Amino acid sequence: MTAMAAEKPRGIAGTISDVFFTRPQLLTLLLLLPPLLWIGVVYVGSLFALLLQSFYSLDDFSGVVVHEFTLATYSQLFEGSNVQIILRTVTMAALVTVASAIIAFPIAYYAARYARGWMKALFYLAVMMPLWSSYLVKVYAWKLILAKEGVITWFANALHLGWLLDGILALPIIGGPSLSFSYLGTFLVFVYIWLPYMILPTQAALERVPTNFIEASADLGADPGQTFRTVIFPLALPGIVAGSIFTFSLTLGDYIIPQIVGNSRLMIGQAVYTLQGTAGNIPLAAAFTVVPMVIMGFYLWMAKRMGAFDVL
Amino acid sequence: MSSKGKTVSPLGLRISAIGGLLFLHLPLFFIFLYAFTTEEKSFEFPPPGLTTKWFGVAWNSRPDIWPPLYLSLQVAAIATILALIFGTLAAAALSRTKFFGRESISLLFVLPIALPGIITGIALRSAFDIMSIPFSVWTIILGHATFCIVVVYNNAVARFRRLSGNLVEASMDLGADGFQTFRHVILPQIGTALLAGGMLAFALSFDEVIVTTFTAGQQTTLPIWMLSELIRPRQRPVTNVVAVFVFLVTLLPILAAYYLTREGEHTGGSSK
Fold first, then answer.
1. What is the pLDDT of residue B79?
2. Average pLDDT over residues A122-128
3. By CB count within 10 A, which of A50, A72, A191, B113 is most buried?
């Protein structure tokens, strides 16, 4: 190769590529620099701006942001109603994650172990399409379905189960005047919207379970239930944890869904949105977003320890 | 051979798998149904009557739909191009060599979609605020490109990993320089992955609402228009007509991207 290069002159392109060939690190650096600058400056820079803002405070009288270092804004987070908002959001995120895992598992399991050929492609598409299709359209679909005069009420009455629906809506906390103004409705929409994020990593983890492990387990006398509990489920767990990163994180930060389907009690995302918008209180909004960041930082650290990143 | 006997799935599993898939797909059907209802004030089910007039109304007598549509298309196109450039560069760099800090950098590149969109949104909003940058088309694009980079990066990095090193070496051995190798050997192999990533990025940007509400100021993209219609409805079936349109605009690139990456599985060089 070097002998050939010496024989005929190769022009500027040749010279440059020779330099890169002899110094591969230089090429890596040059390739990496522009995207790293973008993410580093635009994204990480903005995150720092956000952190900085959270240490400022809002002057209660003038409504102007005071650009002086203070922890006063953070202490506001621990006031009654704000603690309520945080607890409410974390509870919702945890419930949505558990429900998504339960609904996702059979789909992922079927797709990984039984679906073959065109069935497998169909399953994959059936999960990918809702994952990527318009978020707002999906939320809107549930607004139609959950409305008082809408689909679910009609079906409940047609099946003579109207009493059951009324009973559920009469429950304290999760109920409300109609499904589209209740926690139950918010919960349903969250599960629906984030479900594909749970299915895909679970399926990926299940597909990596070697068939001969399962056969070995059976040969050694385990019944299917034991095989599932001691072989399949532990190996699928990193995938479920990987999926839960999405379901948990996305629920923590969402403010559109509880705004469209839900009651008037705020979640973190809505609090952030209202504070930065009409209230102009960017410092408190920023302090509020630090909560999901800290929770997710901890969560990601745990997930990494459990090997969830290998499945992504 | 216990694995052969296992080709028939337990009934309970099949029912819950199919039930789960129905749960994922049935709701979208109602978006289509309600685009044809005659009732414009409520979500009455079943619709009292069916009509196609709302498609005409959306096309002719709702001028408020068009400027948001143009803005969304413009933003999505530019954000996609930026994402293609930066995402490919990042994937190429991170897949070719191992170096200290590579893991942390790859984590950094997925951060914009791992953290909730609201954080990206409010972070950008605070940065604009601190630096006194006024809202413009470019502030929207800046936000969109940041998470679109991740999509392209993910698609490209998967393909780069499957790219067989032998072909690159063979190309070099046969006397091609780095640029020729890129042009004739690497690009044809990653092309479909990039196209797929670009299409997904376009779909994602066209439909994005969470980050956009923080970076748009007074501007209205199509999803923001839709959001305001959801909160203060005027002619509900018209919103459905637009929703059907948005659904199709995002669905077609997704199907194309799926098709492209499937095709790619046979040309990737080494298997798996």
1. 95
2. 86
3. A50
Do A37 and A119 lie in a common domain?
Answer: no
**Percent of chain A surpassing pLDDT 90:** 19
Amino acid (one-letter) located at A310: D
**Residue-range definition of the domain harbouring residue B163:** 68-266
Cross-chain Cβ contact A17/B179 below 8 Å: yes
Both A40 and A178 in one domain: the answer is: no
Asked if residue A212 is part of any domain, the answer here is: yes
Tell me if A137 sits within 8 A of A143, measured CB to CB. no
- Structural domain of A107: 78-310
Residue at B219 is within a domain: yes
Tell me the pLDDT of chain A averaged across its residues.
Answer: 85
- Average pLDDT, integer, range B190-205: 88
CA–CA separation, A269 vs A92, rounded Å? 12
CA distance A45 to chain B (A): 8
Given an 8 Å threshold on Cβ–Cβ distance, is A272 in contact with B118?
A: yes
Domain-located, residue A95: yes
Backbone dihedral region for residue A66 (phi beyond 0: left; psi -120 to 50: alpha; all else: beta): beta
Q: Is residue A59 part of a domain?
A: no
Q: What is the pLDDT of residue B217?
A: 84
> Considering only CB atoms, which chain A residues are within 8 Å of B72?
none
Is residue B155's pLDDT more than 60? yes
Residue B99 confidence (pLDDT) above 60: yes
Selection from B239, B243, B236 nearest residue B41 by Cα: B236
CATH number, domain with residue B151? 1.10.3720.10
| B105-142 confidence digits (pLDDT tens) | 877 887 887 778 888 888 888 888 888 889 999 999 99
Q: Is residue B38 part of a domain?
A: no
Instruction: With H, G, I as helix, E, B as strand and everything else as coil, classify residue A57.
Output: strand
Chain B residues close to A254, C-beta within 8 Å = 116-118, 210
Are A289 and B42 an interchain contact pair (Cβ–Cβ within 8 Å)? no
